[in-house]
């Protein structure tokens, strides 16, 4: 009985352990190289982000992050704060309006 309790206790701890190198790809709206720099800078500004690369052609932001320090939602919020919509978090109109003219993408 004791062995079973110890085993299940360790299993529960292992499930709660967060990945230090979690990989994600998320859609981020934008248009150009200025957008790329802004999006990547915002992502890197979140503690725990190890890699952030936005592709201007596919609009995909490739991320590697430490889930013990941050979450995908935290990164989406940071990107939205600089004016770029993600599927999970939309930028406020005020933040969107601050973008340079060539960076104004078509919003859904």
Automatic annotation (TrEMBL):
InterPro entries: HMA_dom, HMA_dom_sf. GO terms for molecular function: metal ion binding. Residues 19-87 form the HMA domain. It holds the Pfam family HMA. This is Heavy-metal-associated domain-containing protein.
């Amino acid at each position: 009985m004791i062995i079973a309790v110890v085993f299940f206790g360790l299993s529960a701890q292992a499930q709660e352990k967060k990945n230090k190198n979690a990989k994600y790809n998320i859609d981020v709206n934008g248009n150009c190289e200025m957008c790329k720099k802004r999006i990547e800078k915002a992502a890197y500004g979140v503690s725990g982000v190890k890699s952030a690369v936005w592709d201007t052609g596919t609009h995909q932001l490739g991320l590697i992050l430490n889930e013990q320090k941050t979450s995908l939602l935290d990164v989406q919020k940071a990107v939205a704060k600089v004016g770029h919509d993600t599927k999970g978090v939309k930028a406020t109109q005020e933040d969107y309006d601050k973008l340079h003219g060539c960076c104004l993408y078509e919003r859904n």
